[in-house]
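Dear all,

This email documents one entry for the complex benchmark we are building for the journal club exercise. For each entry we list the sequence lines for every component of the assembly. Then comes the predicted three-dimensional structure of the complex as a token string, followed by one or two observations. Please use this as the template for your own entries, and keep the labels exactly as they appear.
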Amino acid sequence: MATETADTPSAPQPVSTASAVSSAAAASDAIERRAVVKRWLLSAPALVVIIGCGLMPLLIIFAYSWTKPAEYAGVIWHFQPDAWINVLFQEDLFSDALSPNWAYYSIYLRSILIALQTTMLALIIGFPTAYFIATREERSRNAWLFLITIPFWSNLLIRIYAIMMIIRDEGYLNHALLAIGAIDQPLPIIFTNYALSYGLIYAYLPLMVLPLYASLEKLDFRLVEAGYDLYASRFKVLWHVIIPLVKPGIVAGSILVFIPAIGDYIIAQILGGGKRMMLGNLIAQQFGTARNWPQGSALALTLMAVVMLALVFYATKSQRKRAA
Amino acid sequence: MTAVADTRRGRPGPRPVAAAARPKGRRFDVKTLPGFAVMAWFCVVALYTPIAVLVAYSFNDNNTVVIWTQFSVRWYGIALNDEEIRDAALLSLKVAFLASLFATTFATMAAIATTRVPNYRGLTFIYAIINQPLMVPEIVTGIATIVFFGLIRQATGIYGIGYLITAHIVFCIPFAYLPIRARLEDMDRTFENAAADLYASPWQAFRHVTFPLLVPGILGGGMLAFLVSLDDVVISVLVAGPGETTLPLYVVSQIKRGITPELNAMASMFLCASAILATLFFLLTRRKAK
């Protein structure tokens, strides 16, 4: 108290009301501060678990990516940037000359192409589906959404297993085709890029449909009607009216499909047979048979950087939309 | 954008009249686009065919998977009596139960601390941290976690199922958090204000007003977390220690060894279990039409 009065000697008289106000403000400040502390305490367990076991491991592999691989798994704590250099370049064994790491490039390229292809096809299939659902009556809309969502929440592994059962060499499809005499050799479908792509679309299609639906549901059909009134063809209305209006949904759906597709591991493992490597399989291999943990760490962080870029792209896109 | 705004604002008079004047016949529906219905049906059929084929053939009596002989539930009996499958299922349920229990508790607390509150320093930070597990590809989380847990194992000498459960808690938290937060956002402050007016302490208000209203969200979040934990493959493959075979891990190892009708039966049961859980979740968190 004494210090407080000493601090404010210049305003001695009209204190009675002012100090009441300020002390009330101070009291509510204190209450607010206590509420904030309470909120931090409430969030603490979730934060501790996620920071401790979700974020810390990422920091550790970041550290690992700058070390030297030990002979049998693990690392030797000796600083070297080789793992990061190897992400892009190959070091010649004798001359130390750097050359492009084509083996890795082909895997990156395949991952990106397959992820993009998956996203595009999911958009082509998902857009009409979402549009159709959004233009149904309220009741059947919910039924459709339910139909689309349930497979997504059902076990992914089992769904991929089901696809494998159908397309493998001794699978139901080949069996049926052989039985009706359409082919005399089983079609080699599994372990191809097509199989992988099909599996990815199958797995993540609902992630495209749902955000698209959310956008399309809010579409103002008076604008569509205006387009038709102005003699636009169906295609023109779709291209110049509907698609620009639901762009946020298209971007959101594409990002949601692209991210798991590029980070895929298990679908490539089952439908790609391990031969058609995606970036995820390459990472796992570094920690498994290749026993090069620093390399695996560097590649994992590269993958994470790609995903983060996609998310930032999405964030800036949606931000601009909101500002407009 | 400006064109859009113009049509909305400009000339409000004649347009609705014109719209009303047009006969509402079948001939031209502004909402219909050709071929879209076909695509939607194709989509649903494509999503369900593989599952349907799997389930149908799980009732096949034959020892080879592809040749249909006759309807039978024999493989279900064999699968249910298989000790390996039973152990894997029990372990999966145990991990999923414990992980979802902890994750839901933490997520509920965090949701209360971050929803319907005035903005405070760090709110965005808390929100970002909680959603962090969703942003990192599973394979990256998996290998980072295995490295981290390896270090802890080395340092402490502690082994056991706790590691797997902890890894599951981490990625279950955001899934549990989202439905709870959604439920809280839909709730009106007036109930709690009324409780406070009637001299309820904050704890009493929470216990008798907020919590009961929040229960569907918590149940929904818990179920989602349970489902996500039950279904997880990638992180479990990497983190699980020797002998810690959850159901998805069992399926993966069996796929490598070769496909049996028994595996089909087991997969069908597993699929049904997660589909039922998903349905319950859908019903529980469905928002009432306004």
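Observations: The CA atoms of residues 141 and 235 of chain B lie 7 Å apart. Chain B touches chain A through 98 residues (CB under 8 Å).
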